[in-house]
Amino acid sequence: MGDRYEHIRNGTPMCCDQWIEEMSLIGLQYRFNSPHAGASRLQDAYVGQIIIVNLDIAWQTATPIPNRWNDGSLIVQVVRDGTRWMEQRGEQGMKCSCGDVAVVDPLYWYKATVHAQTSMSILRIPRSALRERGLHGEFPVICCPDPANPDVRAVRDFILYMTSQAGKASNAMLVQLSEQCMDLADVLVSDRSRPAPKRSNAVTVLRAKQLIARRIGDHDLCVASIAAELNMTPRNLTFVLQAGGLSPMRYVWSVRLEHAARLLVGASRGDIKTLAHQCGFASPAHFARVFKARYDMTPRDYMESHKTARRDAVNRCSCATCQALKSREQPNR
């Protein structure tokens, strides 16, 4: 049986015995459900703090190996196609079908089984990242958020999109997506049956900043909506942020202006109106007014000044790339 089926991890083919050994290295004991077996495909990638895994398997069972698993991460799995059966604490038959999400803690025993070919997108998220966001870091019971919940569906679809981009999008982009994914993790792992851990002021400030960065283009962003997402009152949120030296809406407008300034570098004149809307400003006129108050020049002047600076840098440089750029920019004679 060991050489009968081909299994592939990150492009490397292997027999059944090699596959089992490979999986044991990441702390999971895989077993083929004889007399059935099937080919396996696993592609994983380290992206920032998390690991993205795309997995296709059939007729296999997995359990965590005691004392082998690095307890620094949780497993978030989304079933793309097929069915995975989960067993824990004597509860059998927890069915995860296409579109279902499960959060599994490998510190606590479980058994996951698939029969027919099943495809999954999996994230390994560090516990430290959850704790930094004021969330619990351990889950003795498998967490299966309700896929009928619109917020759960939105996060699930985000995970599916991010995992589909592994090997396609740049690593820098994937890191940004992974950070946003961890910011959204509370939708999946918040345990409503027990009180949330007491959140420090530093964690509250961090989560508020992350939320503001994520919603920077939202014209309805306000103290009340930020507080609601953090399960706080607007008064308490304002108090915590001010204790950290921040005025909530001043910070919002500061982030919007900094984001707009980054986008203006390389933009064209026709982009300014769209850019103002994307950054959450009520109108181009409002954008121009507050931008000038911050940077002492209009958005158009700021954009042109960076174009001039870039052109001067190219003209001063003698490298082959800049010489080619200068040749293209010279008018035809």
Automatic annotation (TrEMBL):
Keywords annotated in UniProt: DNA-binding, Transcription, Transcription regulation
Chain ranges of the HTH araC/xylS-type domain: 206-305
Keyword presence, Mitochondrion: no
UniProt xrefs under SMART domains: HTH_ARAC (SM00342)
Keyword Transcription: yes
Gene Ontology molecular function, alphabetical: DNA-binding transcription factor activity; sequence-specific DNA binding
Protein name: HTH-type transcriptional activator RhaS
Organism: Paraburkholderia humisilvae
Gene behind this protein: rhaS_21
